[in-house]
Design goal:
Layout (H helix, E strand, L loop, with lengths): L17 E3 L4 E3 L1 H18 L8 E5 L4 H14 L5 E8 L6 H14 L3 E6 H5 L3 H14 L13 H19 L4 E3 L4 H14 L2 H6 L14 E2 L7 H10 L21
Parallel strand pairs: 3-4, 3-6, 4-5, 6-7
Antiparallel strand pairs: 1-2
Helix pairs in contact: 1-9, 2-9
This protein binds iron/sulfur cluster.
Iron/sulfur cluster (SF4) binds next to helix 6.
Protein backbone atom coordinates (compact mmCIF):
# COMPACT_ATOMS: atom_id res chain seq x y z
CA UNK A 1 0.00 0.00 0.00
CA UNK A 2 2.81 2.40 0.89
CA UNK A 3 5.11 1.42 -2.02
CA UNK A 4 4.16 4.19 -4.41
CA UNK A 5 3.39 6.89 -1.87
CA UNK A 6 5.76 9.88 -1.53
CA UNK A 7 7.30 11.18 1.71
CA UNK A 8 5.06 12.79 4.34
CA UNK A 9 4.05 16.34 3.36
CA UNK A 10 4.24 17.57 6.98
CA UNK A 11 7.39 16.11 8.52
CA UNK A 12 9.22 15.51 5.22
CA UNK A 13 11.03 12.59 6.90
CA UNK A 14 8.86 9.51 7.01
CA UNK A 15 7.19 7.69 4.15
CA UNK A 16 3.53 8.63 3.75
CA UNK A 17 0.93 5.96 4.48
CA UNK A 18 -2.26 7.80 3.60
CA UNK A 19 -3.72 10.47 1.36
CA UNK A 20 -5.60 13.37 2.97
CA UNK A 21 -8.49 14.00 0.63
CA UNK A 22 -9.36 17.44 2.04
CA UNK A 23 -6.19 19.05 0.64
CA UNK A 24 -4.65 16.31 -1.49
CA UNK A 25 -1.60 15.79 0.74
CA UNK A 26 0.17 12.59 1.77
CA UNK A 27 0.92 11.96 5.44
CA UNK A 28 2.84 9.46 7.54
CA UNK A 29 0.90 7.73 10.33
CA UNK A 30 2.23 10.00 13.11
CA UNK A 31 1.37 13.22 11.25
CA UNK A 32 -2.01 11.78 10.25
CA UNK A 33 -2.79 10.98 13.91
CA UNK A 34 -1.67 14.44 15.02
CA UNK A 35 -3.87 16.00 12.33
CA UNK A 36 -6.95 14.03 13.51
CA UNK A 37 -6.23 15.00 17.14
CA UNK A 38 -5.86 18.65 16.07
CA UNK A 39 -9.34 18.57 14.48
CA UNK A 40 -10.80 17.37 17.79
CA UNK A 41 -8.80 19.95 19.75
CA UNK A 42 -10.10 22.72 17.48
CA UNK A 43 -13.71 21.50 17.81
CA UNK A 44 -13.42 21.40 21.62
CA UNK A 45 -11.96 24.89 21.71
CA UNK A 46 -14.14 26.62 19.07
CA UNK A 47 -17.40 25.11 20.32
CA UNK A 48 -16.40 25.51 24.00
CA UNK A 49 -17.27 21.89 24.68
CA UNK A 50 -15.47 21.63 28.05
CA UNK A 51 -14.58 23.80 31.04
CA UNK A 52 -11.16 23.42 32.64
CA UNK A 53 -12.37 21.39 35.64
CA UNK A 54 -15.09 19.33 33.99
CA UNK A 55 -15.73 15.73 34.94
CA UNK A 56 -16.15 14.34 31.45
CA UNK A 57 -18.20 11.15 31.14
CA UNK A 58 -17.17 9.37 27.95
CA UNK A 59 -19.74 6.94 26.57
CA UNK A 60 -17.52 3.96 25.77
CA UNK A 61 -19.20 1.12 23.87
CA UNK A 62 -15.89 -0.41 22.81
CA UNK A 63 -16.69 0.29 19.13
CA UNK A 64 -14.34 2.25 16.84
CA UNK A 65 -15.81 5.74 17.43
CA UNK A 66 -15.88 5.72 21.22
CA UNK A 67 -12.47 4.00 21.36
CA UNK A 68 -10.88 6.70 19.21
CA UNK A 69 -12.73 9.40 21.15
CA UNK A 70 -11.35 8.19 24.48
CA UNK A 71 -7.83 7.86 23.08
CA UNK A 72 -7.79 11.41 21.69
CA UNK A 73 -9.49 13.02 24.70
CA UNK A 74 -6.98 11.26 26.92
CA UNK A 75 -4.17 12.97 24.99
CA UNK A 76 -5.86 16.39 24.97
CA UNK A 77 -7.27 16.50 28.48
CA UNK A 78 -4.15 15.40 30.36
CA UNK A 79 -2.95 18.99 29.99
CA UNK A 80 -6.00 20.19 31.95
CA UNK A 81 -7.31 19.57 35.48
CA UNK A 82 -10.43 17.97 33.96
CA UNK A 83 -11.18 14.28 34.61
CA UNK A 84 -12.17 11.56 32.16
CA UNK A 85 -14.51 8.79 33.29
CA UNK A 86 -15.46 6.01 30.87
CA UNK A 87 -19.00 4.66 31.09
CA UNK A 88 -20.15 1.57 29.25
CA UNK A 89 -23.87 0.89 28.95
CA UNK A 90 -24.91 -2.75 28.66
CA UNK A 91 -28.15 -2.62 26.69
CA UNK A 92 -28.83 -6.30 27.35
CA UNK A 93 -28.48 -7.70 23.82
CA UNK A 94 -27.77 -11.44 23.92
CA UNK A 95 -24.75 -12.72 21.95
CA UNK A 96 -23.45 -9.20 21.35
CA UNK A 97 -22.72 -6.99 24.33
CA UNK A 98 -21.00 -9.77 26.31
CA UNK A 99 -18.17 -9.65 23.75
CA UNK A 100 -17.90 -5.85 23.80
CA UNK A 101 -17.83 -5.28 27.57
CA UNK A 102 -14.37 -6.74 28.30
CA UNK A 103 -12.98 -4.88 25.27
CA UNK A 104 -14.36 -1.56 26.53
CA UNK A 105 -13.01 -2.22 30.03
CA UNK A 106 -9.57 -3.06 28.65
CA UNK A 107 -9.48 0.10 26.51
CA UNK A 108 -10.13 2.24 29.60
CA UNK A 109 -7.65 0.24 31.70
CA UNK A 110 -4.88 0.64 29.11
CA UNK A 111 -5.30 4.41 29.33
CA UNK A 112 -5.64 4.33 33.12
CA UNK A 113 -9.10 5.88 32.86
CA UNK A 114 -11.73 5.17 35.55
CA UNK A 115 -14.31 2.73 34.16
CA UNK A 116 -17.94 2.15 35.15
CA UNK A 117 -20.47 -0.31 33.80
CA UNK A 118 -24.23 0.31 33.91
CA UNK A 119 -27.03 -1.65 32.34
CA UNK A 120 -30.48 -0.90 30.95
CA UNK A 121 -31.81 -3.53 33.36
CA UNK A 122 -30.33 -1.75 36.35
CA UNK A 123 -31.18 1.83 35.29
CA UNK A 124 -34.44 1.40 33.40
CA UNK A 125 -35.72 -1.95 34.67
CA UNK A 126 -35.62 -3.89 31.36
CA UNK A 127 -32.95 -5.18 29.01
CA UNK A 128 -33.24 -4.20 25.34
CA UNK A 129 -34.12 -7.81 24.45
CA UNK A 130 -37.01 -7.64 26.95
CA UNK A 131 -38.18 -4.26 25.59
CA UNK A 132 -38.15 -5.61 22.01
CA UNK A 133 -40.07 -8.74 23.05
CA UNK A 134 -42.64 -6.68 24.99
CA UNK A 135 -43.05 -4.32 22.05
CA UNK A 136 -43.64 -7.28 19.72
CA UNK A 137 -46.34 -8.64 22.03
CA UNK A 138 -48.05 -5.24 22.25
CA UNK A 139 -47.92 -4.73 18.50
CA UNK A 140 -49.62 -8.09 17.97
CA UNK A 141 -52.48 -6.93 20.21
CA UNK A 142 -52.90 -3.56 18.47
CA UNK A 143 -55.81 -3.06 16.05
CA UNK A 144 -55.01 -3.97 12.46
CA UNK A 145 -53.87 -1.42 9.87
CA UNK A 146 -56.18 1.43 9.00
CA UNK A 147 -58.22 1.55 12.24
CA UNK A 148 -55.91 3.79 14.24
CA UNK A 149 -52.52 5.48 14.21
CA UNK A 150 -50.07 2.68 14.88
CA UNK A 151 -46.43 3.64 15.01
CA UNK A 152 -44.06 0.68 14.99
CA UNK A 153 -40.69 1.27 16.57
CA UNK A 154 -37.71 -0.91 15.76
CA UNK A 155 -35.09 -2.04 18.32
CA UNK A 156 -32.74 0.82 17.38
CA UNK A 157 -35.33 3.48 18.22
CA UNK A 158 -35.72 2.03 21.74
CA UNK A 159 -31.98 1.51 22.04
CA UNK A 160 -31.11 5.09 21.05
CA UNK A 161 -33.62 6.72 23.39
CA UNK A 162 -32.85 4.48 26.38
CA UNK A 163 -29.07 4.68 25.84
CA UNK A 164 -29.21 8.49 25.99
CA UNK A 165 -31.36 8.25 29.12
CA UNK A 166 -29.07 5.63 30.70
CA UNK A 167 -25.96 7.71 29.96
CA UNK A 168 -27.61 10.75 31.53
CA UNK A 169 -28.56 8.79 34.68
CA UNK A 170 -25.03 7.34 34.87
CA UNK A 171 -23.48 10.80 34.41
CA UNK A 172 -25.60 12.20 37.24
CA UNK A 173 -24.67 9.30 39.54
CA UNK A 174 -20.99 10.01 38.81
CA UNK A 175 -21.33 13.81 39.21
CA UNK A 176 -20.41 14.33 35.57
CA UNK A 177 -20.44 17.80 34.00
CA UNK A 178 -20.56 16.69 30.35
CA UNK A 179 -21.33 13.49 28.47
CA UNK A 180 -19.05 13.00 25.44
CA UNK A 181 -20.20 10.61 22.72
CA UNK A 182 -18.39 9.25 19.67
CA UNK A 183 -20.64 10.66 16.92
CA UNK A 184 -18.46 11.40 13.91
CA UNK A 185 -18.88 13.74 10.92
CA UNK A 186 -20.89 11.16 8.96
CA UNK A 187 -23.35 10.70 11.87
CA UNK A 188 -23.71 14.45 12.39
CA UNK A 189 -24.25 15.06 8.65
CA UNK A 190 -26.98 12.41 8.52
CA UNK A 191 -28.68 14.04 11.50
CA UNK A 192 -28.54 17.49 9.85
CA UNK A 193 -30.08 16.11 6.65
CA UNK A 194 -32.85 14.32 8.58
CA UNK A 195 -33.61 17.48 10.58
CA UNK A 196 -33.66 19.51 7.36
CA UNK A 197 -36.11 17.06 5.79
CA UNK A 198 -38.28 17.31 8.88
CA UNK A 199 -38.03 21.11 8.91
CA UNK A 200 -36.88 21.00 12.56
CA UNK A 201 -35.07 24.34 12.89
CA UNK A 202 -34.66 24.00 16.69
CA UNK A 203 -32.59 20.84 16.35
CA UNK A 204 -30.67 22.29 13.39
CA UNK A 205 -29.62 25.30 15.47
CA UNK A 206 -28.89 23.27 18.61
CA UNK A 207 -25.86 21.66 16.96
CA UNK A 208 -24.18 25.04 16.60
CA UNK A 209 -24.69 26.19 20.18
CA UNK A 210 -22.27 25.59 23.09
CA UNK A 211 -23.42 22.77 25.41
CA UNK A 212 -26.09 23.99 27.73
CA UNK A 213 -27.76 22.62 30.86
CA UNK A 214 -31.34 23.00 29.67
CA UNK A 215 -32.81 21.18 32.69
CA UNK A 216 -31.45 20.58 36.20
CA UNK A 217 -31.54 16.80 35.62
CA UNK A 218 -29.88 16.96 32.23
CA UNK A 219 -26.11 16.57 31.79
CA UNK A 220 -25.10 18.38 28.56
CA UNK A 221 -23.95 16.11 25.72
CA UNK A 222 -21.05 16.94 23.42
CA UNK A 223 -19.65 15.34 20.25
CA UNK A 224 -15.92 16.05 20.02
CA UNK A 225 -15.51 13.85 16.88
CA UNK A 226 -18.18 15.78 14.98
CA UNK A 227 -15.65 17.15 12.44
CA UNK A 228 -13.77 13.86 11.91
CA UNK A 229 -14.95 11.73 8.96
CA UNK A 230 -15.72 8.07 9.67
CA UNK A 231 -12.94 6.99 7.28
CA UNK A 232 -10.39 8.99 9.33
CA UNK A 233 -11.72 7.48 12.59
CA UNK A 234 -11.06 4.01 11.19
CA UNK A 235 -7.58 4.98 9.93
CA UNK A 236 -6.69 6.60 13.26
CA UNK A 237 -7.65 3.40 15.09
CA UNK A 238 -5.62 1.34 12.62
CA UNK A 239 -2.46 3.49 12.74
CA UNK A 240 -2.58 3.64 16.54
CA UNK A 241 -3.11 -0.11 16.96
CA UNK A 242 -6.36 0.41 18.83
CA UNK A 243 -8.35 -2.76 19.37
CA UNK A 244 -12.10 -2.30 19.27
CA UNK A 245 -15.31 -4.33 19.20
CA UNK A 246 -16.28 -5.27 15.64
CA UNK A 247 -19.09 -7.78 16.16
CA UNK A 248 -22.29 -6.66 14.49
CA UNK A 249 -25.34 -6.15 16.68
CA UNK A 250 -28.04 -8.77 15.88
CA UNK A 251 -30.56 -5.92 15.49
CA UNK A 252 -28.38 -4.02 13.02
CA UNK A 253 -30.27 -5.38 9.99
CA UNK A 254 -33.41 -3.65 11.34
CA UNK A 255 -31.52 -0.42 11.88
CA UNK A 256 -33.25 2.80 11.01
CA UNK A 257 -31.62 6.13 11.70
CA UNK A 258 -32.70 7.81 14.91
CA UNK A 259 -32.08 11.53 15.28
CA UNK A 260 -29.63 12.37 18.05
S1 LIG B 1 -27.73 -1.67 16.03
FE1 LIG B 1 -29.50 -0.74 17.00
S2 LIG B 1 -30.03 -2.09 18.72
FE2 LIG B 1 -27.94 -2.61 18.07
S3 LIG B 1 -26.61 -1.39 19.43
FE3 LIG B 1 -26.94 -0.19 17.53
S4 LIG B 1 -28.69 1.12 17.98
FE4 LIG B 1 -28.67 -0.52 19.54
Amino acid sequence: MTKNLPECYTCKKKPAVTYRRIDGRYLCKECFSKWVSSIVRKTVSQKKLFERNDRIIVGLSGGKDSTVLLDILHKIERKYPSELIAVCIDEGIANYREDGLPIAEKIAKNLDVEFHLFSFKELIGYSLDEIVERSRELQEKLPSKGETKIVKHGPCSFCGVFRRKALNIAARKLNGDKVATGHNLNDVTQTILLNLLRGDSNKLLRGELPPEKTHELFVPRVKPLQAVAERDVVLYAFYNNLTYHTTECPYASKMGRSIS
